Fold this sequence. Notes:
Largest sheet of chain A: 6 strands, antiparallel
Mean pLDDT of chain B: 84
CATH class of the largest domain in chain A: Alpha Beta
Number of helices of chain B: 5
CATH topology of chain B: Rossmann fold
Number of domains of chain B: 1
Oligomer: heterodimer
Shape of chain A: rod-shaped
Strand content of chain B: 25-35%
CATH superfamily of chain B: P-loop containing nucleotide triphosphate hydrolases
Largest interface: A-B, 23 and 28 residues
Helix content of chain A: 55-70%
Number of strands of chain B: 6
Number of domains of chain A: 6
Order of helices and strands of chain B: EHHEEEHEHEH
Low-confidence stretches of chain A: 599-616
Strand content of chain A: 15-25%
CATH topology of the largest domain in chain A: Beta-Lactamase
Number of helices of chain A: 20
Strand order of the largest sheet of chain B: 2-3-1-4-5-6
Amino acid sequence: MAEQAQRRAPMALAQEKSTDNNHAYEELRHLIVAPETEGLAAVEERLDNLEKRTCDVSEVVAEAIEMRRATGDQALSDALAPTIQETLRESVRRDPHVLADALFPVMGPAIRKSITETLRGMLESFNEALDNSFSARGLKWRVEAMRTGKPFAEIVMMHSLLYRVEQVFLIHRETGLVLNHLVAPTVAAQAQDPDLVAGMLSAIQQFVRDSFKSKDSESLASLNIGDLQVWVEESPNAILAAVVRGHAPADFRQAMNEVLEDIQRYFSSALANFKGDAGPFRAADERLSKLLEIRYKEAPEEKKKPRALLIAAGIAAALLLGWVLYVSYASWQWSRFLADLHKQPGIVVVSTATHGRSLHVEGFRDPLAADPKALVSQAGLDPEKADLQLAPYYSLDDAMVTKRAEKILHPPSTVRLSTKGGELVAEGSAPQQWITNLEERTPLIAGVTGLDESHLVNSNLQQLFTLKSSLESVILLFPLGRAELEPDQDQKIAEIETRLRELQSQADTFHQSVNVALVGHSDTTGIEGTNLVLSQQRAEQIRRLLLRNGIRRETLRPTGVGTTQPLRNEDSEEGRQLNRSVTFKVSFAPAGSAAANAAAAAASTSTNAPPATPPGN
Amino acid sequence: MIQKKICMLGSFSVGKTSLVRRFVATIFDEHYHTTIGVKIDKKIVKTDGGEVTLVLWDIHGEDVYQKMRMTYLRGMSGYLLVADGTRRQTLDDALALNERVVQEFGKLPSLLLLNKFDLTDQWEIDSSQMSKLAAAGWNAINTSAKTGDGVEGAYLRLAQAAQGK
Lengths: 617, 165
């Protein structure tokens, strides 16, 4: 409006006023509209000039791409991808080294990462298998593996799998032909011919649609066969089917949808003009492989915990049990030791206390009682752990009294000492001197109230009687009618003399004097009176022989009994020979006593008696 | 590799399934036929234009109990129309069926197979009938699923026709 007004005004003025004015208006107009006109011209030039336009776009292209990318739209990547791929391909074709050099720093880590991932996967499944191998569940699965003939790993997988997408089919919707098919490596061997499966799947889709008169846009979304499911998504030209073992989450369908939409958009013309050549759809590999997922069941934490707890509790219980057993065993050992200690003569236990593994004992101990530390060792216990506070005392226990008596009396090996109710009993044989010592010292021994020596034999006395009987068993033989010894009897005199001396010395120990009656015998041949004399002569003869060897005169008392005390009956010559003899009769009397003197006197009288009898036999 | 969807059409018991069973790779049991009315098999054929995978939709023959599902024919590149040469009626039925197919899907590469050619003594298709068929534009082939006569050739010809050669 303003422009029109501006144009109309100078025209009216031109009619009414001079050309001067015209010029003035022109000037005015120029002044008013010139800036706009110039601006318009500049814009026009800019639009027409390719170089300038390129320059303008170059200023904003980076920001534009950035802005589009920020919206999260996939379209930009899809649009750029073919160009970039083509560029890369061209670059490699021209000079492979350029790209190789550029990728070199990336390749190494990528390969390493890939290898690490693969190993980790293997390790996980190995651990899983190992974990399951040693449980009741694992055993059950082993049986199942044997029964079904499937590998154990497969059975483990089937049970511990949350879900696994085993196959993905991209199917041309109209023909039911396979455009692309991916199969997880682990099930590759079991996968059926994809062409047939895809065809059947689309046939089933159509069957369901026809049978239930559903709309063309509606279709079978999933098929369930045991723990196997086939999830199906459809786009205008394609069917995407995923074979899933286990239970996939709902968002997996979302992922399928996104992939299918992407494929439908990217391959829209290839899908619409499909004539049986699946080649172009190889390019969908990457998109489809995203769907080949595998998810394992999370190791059930709450199940593991109780097991760990159970094991820990088991260990704790075992330790506790072990400790209790150890403590009770130690305490049983101590109590057994204490029982032994109580029985020990000469030890009195007043109080005991156990502190953990150590023992404290208070009481009394006779110095002659067993060493308590040695008893601890014998019981298999550590002497270091036993604190024994035993004060010394004299025990009146018979065993201890006996020990004490033994220590004081030093009995010879032939004597056995014991104590009964305080009375010391000595048994066996001992020399006179020790017996004297015993009698003197026994009353001084602590705990001894009396002495019983009824079973104690005086060994000196015993010897004395042995000598006596040995002497009394000697028979000195004489020839018929004669008072001289048979020639072979001389040796006997020497023996008799030795025994007599010994007897005398033994008797001295007891303060006894020895009297030896020399008894002369004769046989019955000849006259009785003669025989008596002969027997006296025989006794005298022996005394003479013994006196000659220095035997004391008062010791010997010769008598003749004639035939009155025959040693044998005289039925034989041997009997008669034995009766022609002298025998010995030994008696003792306290030295210096009347009996001794009398004996001595009698001996001297008989000696003095004359051999008045006539010779007999 | 090029794939083609090929349908096998024809009345009940004309030997469609036998034409498939001996000559193609199959994984499905025949009872699919009676349940969902179709059984899918596959046949790889070497043509001048390279190997072609024929995905064969062996469609259950029509009878009084079951109508053929035309939707199964969608997207096919050609079809084999099968009749039993020993039963004249099956040929008429096949031709009638063909009309329905052409009506719905337009003209597609196809072959007419007169099967059970091994049973010549019972053959009901005479030469006049054959020339009538030829006049109607039919390329009729005598086949025998039993002896294999004509079968491989039929698959090859259809594969080539479907490739537009």
